[in-house]
Model the fold of this input.
Amino acid sequence: MYSVTATDLDGTLLHSNHTLDHFTADTIRMLAARGVHIIIATGRHYRDVAGIRDLLGVDAYLITSNGARACMRPATTASTRAISIPPWCAGWCSPIWRATTGA
Done:
């Protein structure tokens, strides 16, 4: 059995109209109930993703803002850890990321 599953949002967990269907939500809930750690990784802002996590009703790890922020579960303010990338680092890392990913 898998111990972790990671997913993007747009075009993966969500439809093109930004909705979550019942089958997908039920599948994520079933995995979480079986002890599978859920990770949502996206370019979206934390607040958008936290709302989707709350809609799913699972404790999910969130990697948001294109990796600039990582939040641990459970979803409480006390356990949230933000990883802020300083502007100098973001400017330095972007060309490396583009070169290695082809983006």
About this structure: The longest strand covers residues 37-41. The mean pLDDT is 77. The chain has one domain: 4-101. Helices lie at 22-33, 46-56, 87-101.
